[in-house]
Specification:
Residues 997-1095 form the Type VI secretion system IcmF C-terminal domain. The chain crosses the membrane at residues 7-28, 34-59, 381-399. InterPro entries: IcmF-rel, IcmF_C, T6SS_TssM-like, TssM1_hel, TssM1_N. It is a single chain. By secondary structure, the chain is an alpha+beta fold. It is 55% helix and 11% strand. It is built from 39 helices and 22 strands. A hairpin with a 4-residue loop joins strand 19 (1042-1048) and strand 20. Helix 1 (3-27) packs across helix 3 (52-82) and helix 4 (138-151) runs parallel beside helix 6 (175-195). The longest helix is centred in the C-terminal third of the chain and has 42 residues, at 867-908. The two termini are 117 Å apart.
């Protein structure tokens, strides 16, 4: 913006402000001094427009403010993008001053790019440091430097970077160079004057690789530190010291390249490696002159401090020259140096790398002007103190000058300002009640403060003391804001509450909230509205207690100041009415009782009910899902004592008050009695139903061992079963209470004279009737006691099917003692049997005599109506039976193995005829197994004889047929077969004797004789008569072998011999023609044969049958 136009715009703005102030003063009838302030602003606007010095000052301050705002905004954007520290001094700041013909700069990678960034400002971010490059007019540069001193008062810069080109140093024409140096000095002097300390300066000689050979000499093993000279080090303050440092740099570079030449194969590259240090030496004089000029400030103290000098390469050089051949052309003012071959080597000592490694570590060396900080702080304190003193004096003078009208005006204006400030600070939402509290509280406090001050100073009401009626202003403003904000917010809140309860089908709350909603819309029933809102807001958690009290005070003021009737939501009310028409009022009243806080509490009675104690196992559990094992406070005798359904009771009166929506008019006694009866009987039914379900959900804990059951039931100090029934009885056996008596002391009419006796008695009756009528509290107490006894009696009657729950505590204890005595007897009987050497034998002997169970036979002989006791007894008997059966089974199995299985397997089963491939069974072993006095016979007589035949099986009852031990069917079959074999073998007086009858049947014609011989006895057959021959077994076979001899017509003999006592059976087994037949056929190799019969060989019940002994199979287990 041009200066004249800016001056005109500023002056016009001030003039417009003055005009607005005059207009507002006139419209609001403000004090006269506001007119003077408007006139003063108009005079200032004219001076700005027409007086050059003033307008220059104003324009300058305006431009300065714009530049400061622009630079500050730019830095904020840069800090946000780069995420810089909030402490501006933690980031190193550098200012770049570059020569006009120097094109070198920092890498584009480090450049900070932002949209809308000024074209004349370039910012680089290198290793956490900000580098500012400002290329603008002198005036803008001064603004930038002033902004630096403003934003970083303690330390504007960590250093200044001076970029110069190598060509500009060696050229003869130095006019542009001098101008650049002068500009550099002027900028640093400006910084020095603003900050008060010399700024560190770092000199960069750019483009040294434009000198032929420099790039090659720096390409091989060169440290960047070798190309830097630090002037702050000892001995580098004079020109001679600078010369020596430069010569040392030349020597290091030349020696390094001289060493590398021997390793290089390219001759041209070798030459340039040695030429590079020479080129830097030729540049020495120009560099020294350049630094001397920077260090010369016309004999004055330097406003800056030269810290370092760096030689850097250029990345975009297009020319390379050889100073050794071009020095003559330089002397004759040749400005364009001859170009030689361009190098392709990548620069190593670039400006960004040199800055990072050599300059940035020196950032902390920049001095800090602490005196300026203290001076700035002192000035700020002085300014604040002066301002405070001026304001205090002005306030005191104003207070003395203003009268009451002015003070009222200020108070009202302050109220307006605070109210607007709150409205602008926070967004007000009609959906959030807490957002309205602060502004409305402000208006409320102002209104009440005015009312209180007027009450303390009555003369404030005089008309001549106030130009306007401030009370009316306060009241109208407060009333208007209450009606605008609080009224619709509360109305909407009640509508939302109605909708929520309607969705939840909580119709009782719907009725009550509807009544509150209509009352608030009609500006009626303030007490009920406030009570409901206080409760609702507390339950919703929207506001804390302090805020709720504030809202209630606002509602009180809203009713006090008055407001117009609110238009209700007719659609919502119609929907509510349609739903409420379907509801039962009595049922809603009962729901109210169940929802009361004092009855809605849930009690966990399991610790007492289930007898959960330390080191004790719980015998019972509650199988109710979720939280149904918790008992509502409503279904306890304590709640029953608090309830009373009589119309005159305090509980029913509270019911009417809390449900004002249902009882908009006071109900009659008859109506209350009807509602009370409905609630009472519903409550009785739910009470009984709940405890029935709860009782049915109690069960015995599964998988409890017998020891745990008996121990807990007989040894615990507090029996779990007794405690269970005692706890349940406390809830279902509600004892009746005493009904207060209405009898009063009466004056006996017998002592009165006969003539007055009748009158005295009549007077006494009238007095008693009057006292009963007047003492309503006593009558109510009597009726409540009767009602309580009625409810208690119905609950007890409902559980009459469980006598143990409703009988007296003494009867319950006596019955339980009998039950426990039987359990103890069972426990002692079991313990005594288990302590014997052979518990199984003891149990087996005990089971044979039922009198052994007489002490605890009532456990299975008695009938238990209570499910828990029946289940407990069943569990005890089942576990005891299982234990007894296991012990007896082990004993019987042991005896079976010892008396039957082991003898059979060891002495019989492995031998013939039981094992076809075994050796012959000795007759002594046979006798030991099948003799009438064998171990099996003893087992049968001593053990199996105790079993009772039930159908086809043998059973031994346990505890009165609660269970039984059953002999396995295989054992029964074995015993039957065993007896048959025993009868066959030893049926004749217990001796083993069997007659074998052999009869010839047929013989082939090729045979002449058949001979069967056993010792001296023989059977000879020669195609003659069929004569039977008898042998006695085992008498004839015990020591003689059995021979079969077949003789043919050529007198050749075929002989078969069978050894041993079992030779007849082996003969039959080998030569029997068909199973089940007596015929035996013996054939020769020529096909001749003889057939003879052995009587009984085909009969399975005969000793001679091969299947006779095969029928016997001994089972491994005796019980089923």
């Amino acid at each position: 913006m041009k200066t004249p136009l800016a001056r005109l715009w500023i002056g016009a703005s001030i003039m417009l402000l003055a005009m607005l102030l005059v207009i507002m003063t006139f419209l609001l009838t403000l004090a006269t001094h506001w007119y003077w302030l408007g006139a003063l602003l108009a005079l200032v606007s004219l001076l700005v427009i027409y007086v050059p010095s003033i307008n220059r000052f104003v324009v300058g301050r305006y431009q300065r403010r714009n530049f400061f705002k622009q630079y500050s905004t730019l830095y904020q954007r840069i800090a946000k993008k780069l995420k810089l520290s909030g402490n501006i001094y933690k980031t190193a700041w550098y200012l770049v001053i570059s020569e006009g013909n120097t094109s070198d700069s920092f890498a584009q990678f480090n450049r900070v790019k932002l949209n809308g960034m000024p074209a004349n400002i370039t910012v680089y971010h290198v290793q956490g440091a900000l580098i500012w490059h400002v290329q603008a007019k002198v005036e803008e540069q001064q603004h930038f430097l002033a902004w630096l001193s403003f934003i970083r008062a303690k330390q504007p810069l960590n250093g200044v970077l001076l970029l110069s080109d190598a060509f500009s140093v060696i050229q003869r024409s130095q006019k542009a160079k001098q101008e650049f140096i002068a500009d550099f000095k002027a900028r640093l002097e400006s910084i020095y004057l603003r900050s008060g300390y010399p700024v560190p300066a770092h000199l960069f000689l750019c483009g040294i690789n434009k000198l032929d050979g420099i790039a090659e000499s720096l390409n091989e093993r060169v440290e960047l530190a070798d190309l830097s000279i630090y002037f702050s080090e000892q001995g580098l303050q004079s020109s001679q010291a600078l010369s020596e440092a430069y010569d040392l740099l030349f020597k290091k570079l030349f020696a390094n390249n001289l060493q590398q030449v021997s390793l290089q194969l390219d001759d041209e590259f070798k030459r340039k490696q040695l030429l590079g240090p020479m080129q830097l030496q030729y540049l020495k004089l120009a560099v020294s002159h350049f630094i001397d000029e920077l260090a010369d400030f016309n004999g004055q103290v330097l406003p800056y401090k030269i810290e370092s000098f760096h030689l850097v390469e250029s990345e975009g050089g297009q020319q390379r020259v050889n100073l050794a051949t071009a020095h003559t052309l330089i002397e004759v003012n040749q400005s364009l140096l001859p170009v030689v071959a361009e190098t392709t080597l990548k620069p190593k000592a670039e400006i960004t790398k040199t800055f990072t490694n050599q300059v940035l570590p020196l950032a902390h060396l920049a001095p800090v002007n602490k005196w300026k900080i203290w001076r700035h702080s002192f000035r700020q304190l002085v300014m604040l103190g002066t301002a405070g003193a001026v304001l205090t004096g002005s306030a005191w003078i104003g207070w003395q000058a203003y009268d009451y009208n002015q003070s009222l005006h200020q108070e009202f204006s302050q109220l307006h300002q605070d109210y607007k400030y709150i409205l602008n600070k926070e967004a007000i939402s009609f959906d959030e009640l807490d957002s309205l509290i602060e502004p409305l509280t402000l208006l409320q406090s102002g209104y009440r403060a005015f009312s209180q001050s007027k009450a303390h100073k009555p003369w404030y009401v005089f008309p001549f003391l106030a130009s306007i009626d401030r009370e009316e202003h306060y009241r109208d403003l407060y009333q208007q804001q209450l009606a605008t904000t609080l009224e619709p917010t509360l109305s909407k809140y009640l509508e939302q509450e109605l909708f929520v309860y309607l969705e939840l089908e909580d119709y009782l709350n719907v009725i009550n909230v509807k009544d509150i909603y209509l009352s608030f819309a009609q500006a009626e029933n303030k007490a009920q509205v406030e009570k409901h809102l206080a409760k609702s807001l507390a339950q919703s958690g929207m506001l804390d207690d302090t805020q709720i009290q504030t809202v209630l005070s606002l509602i009180d003021d809203l009713y006090l100041l008055g407001y117009n009737k609110i238009d209700t939501n007719e659609e919502l009310l119609a929907l509510i009415d349609s739903q409420l028409a379907l509801q039962d009022t009595n049922q809603l009243m009962y729901e109210y009782v169940k929802q009361l806080p004092e009855f809605a509490k849930l009690i966990d009675i399991r610790p007492t009910l289930l007898a959960k104690h330390n080191n004790h196992v719980s015998l019972f559990g509650v199988s109710r899902e979720n939280t149904q094992f918790l008992v509502p406070e409503l279904f306890t005798p304590k709640a029953l004592q608090q309830l009373s359904f009589l119309p005159e009771s305090a509980f029913m009166q509270k019911l009417v008050q809390d449900n004002h929506g249902l009882f908009q008019q006071t109900p009659s006694k008859r109506e209350l009695a009807r509602i009370g009866n409905y609630i009472k009987f519903s409550y009785i039914n739910d009470y009984i139903s709940f405890w029935r379900q709860y009782y049915s959900g109690i069960h015995l804990v599964p998988e409890l061992s017998l020891e745990v059951l008996l121990s807990e039931l007989t040894e615990s100090e507090q029996s779990p079963l007794l405690q269970l029934y005692t706890t349940l009885r406390a809830y279902v056996y509600v004892q009746s209470i005493d009904v207060p008596s209405t009898e009063q002391s009466q004056v006996s009419a017998a002592n009165a004279p006969k003539k007055l006796a009748a009158k005295v008695q009549k007077a006494q009756q009238l007095a008693d009737k009057a006292n009963a009528t007047l003492n309503k509290a006593l009558l109510l107490e009597i009726e409540q006691a009767k009602e309580f006894n009625e409810i208690a009696g119905k609950i007890r009657q409902a559980f009459s099917s469980s006598p143990i729950l409703v009988q007296s505590a003494d009867v319950l204890a006596a019955e339980y003692q009998v039950f426990v005595a039987e359990l103890k007897a069972l426990k002692d009987w079991k313990a005594q049997a288990d302590s014997t050497v052979f518990p199984g034998q003891t149990y087996f002997e005990q089971l044979n005599d039922p009198t052994n169970f007489k002490d605890f036979s009532g456990l299975w002989l008695s009938r238990y109506d209570e499910p828990l006791m029946a289940e407990l007894v069943e569990q005890v008997l089942r576990e005891t039976t299982t234990h007894v059966k296991r012990k007896v089974s082990e004993y019987l199995q042991q005896q079976w193995q010892q008396d039957v299985v082991t003898p059979y397997r060891n002495n019989v089963a492995a031998y013939y005829p039981f094992n076809k491939s075994g050796e012959d069974l000795k007759l002594s072993a046979l006798a030991a197994f099948f003799a009438p006095n064998s171990a099996i016979s003893d087992f049968d007589k001593q053990i199996l004889a105790q079993f009772v035949t039930v159908g086809d099986v043998l059973e031994l009852p346990v505890f009165g047929r609660q269970a039984s031990l059953t002999i396995a069917p295989d054992v029964t079959q074995f015993l039957s077969t065993y007896r048959q074999l025993q009868q066959t073998l030893y049926g004749q007086d217990g001796n083993l004797k069997f007659t074998i009858t052999v009869a010839p049947k047929a013989m082939s014609a090729a045979l002449s004789e058949f001979l069967l011989r056993v010792g001296e006895r023989k059977l000879s057959y020669t195609h003659g008569p069929l004569v039977e021959t008898q042998f006695v077994w085992p008498e004839n076979f015990s020591e003689q072998s059995l021979q079969l001899i077949l003789t043919d017509l050529n007198n050749q003999k075929l002989t078969q011999t069978f050894e041993g006592v079992w030779s007849p059976m082996r003969l039959i087994e080998r030569f029997q023609q068909h199973t089940g037949q007596d015929a035996i056929e013996i054939s020769t190799q020529q096909g001749a044969s003889v057939v003879f019969n052995i009587k009984g060989a085909g009969d399975n019940s005969s000793l001679l049958s091969p299947e006779f002994f095969a029928r016997l199979s001994v089972p491994s287990t005796v019980l089923q």
